[in-house]
Amino acid sequence: MTDSNTTYVTDTMHQMKGVWTDERTAPPISTSDIRKWAIATYWPEQPPRIYWDESYANSTRWGGILAPPDFNPFAWPVERIARVGIPQPRKPDGSPLTGMNGGQTDTYGAPMRPGDVITARSRLSDWHERDGRLGWTLYSTTEIEWRNQDDERVKTRMSIGIRY
């Protein structure tokens, strides 16, 4: 058992809770990007025609090519820009915590299309702590939101980080 006064929650975490940070904007989505993503993710099968066949896509209720929901317009950055927004807690002695991915849930909104410009931002949404098999453990929830140029929500990701 860990001392009941132990916490990995920092003052910075309290200050940053709910504050949007790390905003970044991807280049406009191209039809070629969508087609290549669809080929790669459906390989060796043929991807659905809505992702690559302009004539077919124009005849659907969508009226044009769509990107697969898992398409990532941030996948090929020319420069890697360091993110600074979400605070990373440390042990009381200053050493880093061990961390692991606790899973994520994606919720999709408006479909991405050629020409869309997607902006992403993230925030620390919530956390809780408890004593576990690995000792005192912090579970933090980060929300990542993608919006298009019309301010329509494209995707929301809720991600759980586990640190001990």
Under CATH, the topology of the largest domain can be stated as: Thiol Ester Dehydrase, Chain A
What would the principal axes of the Cα set say about the shape?
Answer: elongated
Main beta sheet, described?
Answer: 5 strands, antiparallel
Radius of gyration: 20 Å
The residue-averaged pLDDT reads 92
Query: How many beta-strand segments?
Result: 5
Helix content: 10-25%
Quickly count the helices. Answer: 3
Structural class determined from secondary elements: alpha+beta
Strand order of the largest sheet: 1-3-4-5-2
The count of domains is: 2
**Poorly predicted spans:** none
How much of the polypeptide forms β-strand, as a percent range?
25-35%
- State the CATH class of the largest domain: Alpha Beta
Under the CATH scheme, which architecture of the largest domain would be assigned? Answer: Roll
One letter per element, helices H and strands E, the order comes to: HEHHEEEE
Roughly how many Å apart are the termini? Answer: 13 Å
Mind explaining what this structure looks like?
- The structure is a single chain.
- This protein is α+β, with helices and mostly antiparallel strands and 164 residues long.
- It folds into two domains: 1-27 and 88-164, Thiol Ester Dehydrase, Chain A, CATH 3.10.129; 30-72, no CATH class.
- 14% of the residues lie in helices and 32% in strands.
- The protein has helices at residues 11-16, 31-42, 54-58; strands spanning 21-25, 99-108, 119-132, 135-147, 153-163.
- Strands 1-3-4-5-2 form a five-stranded antiparallel sheet, with no helix packed on it.
- A hairpin with a 5-residue loop joins strand 4 (135-147) and strand 5.
- The chain starts with 10 loop residues before the first helix and ends with a strand.
- The mean pLDDT is 92.
